[in-house]
Amino acid sequence: MTTLHDDISDAGPGVGPGDVPLRRITFSVNGVRTVAEVEPRLLLAHLLRRGLGLTGTHMGCDTTNCGACTVLVDGATVKSCTMLAVQADGHEITTVEGLATASELHPLQEGFKEAHGLQCGFCTPGMMLAAKALLDRNPDPTEEDVRWALSGNLCRCTGYQNIVKSVLWAAEKLGASSAGKTPDGGASSAGKTPDGGASSAGQTPDGGASSAGQTPDGGASSAGQTPDGGGEA
Ligand code: FES
Ligand code: FES
Question: Angle, to 10 degrees, between the axis of helix 160-178 and the axis of helix 107-114?
């Protein structure tokens, strides 16, 4: 059981600092049943990072703007800096650590590698989870679909073009896998390759004309944010 208090308490079991009563919650993280005793004010992001050591969930802004802390709750994207840990009681949480298996990267992770979808990597876990939620509900997204799905996630390195390519690469691979085709695009019925480089149909996954400094949906990236945002390392 994970016990997480903001500070060491002298008040004894079940009570946090300042005599704050603790709440016991039971939830699943990446398929593992987990029990924790937490203060009601504790954020889910802090429970994941500090309580469970799942530091793949990043904290960039603490204000629901950047999306670096995005996780999946019952398959839906949630900014974990905005959700209380007690609200996770009875729910299934997926973090970036839950994407790969012991022997294989998730296609999204492969896609980010193959299509160069990351620079510093700070936004990457949140981007991948937002993309996973999209691909789970729409396995064959358009570029516009991807940009909308990622519009709540900011990349300070402004690498949106390749991030979108990466998600489309993953969609292509997942589609090829489910159709029993090769993921390198050589036998794709659509004639598309995951990296879009040699499509006989003339389609490229990036397709658009995203410019640096824009958000995936074309808005302006907020300036002045550092990759760590002054949050936890
Ligand atoms: Fe949660 Fe930025 S949105 S840390
Ligand atoms: Fe997105 Fe650096 S790669 S913030």
Answer: 130
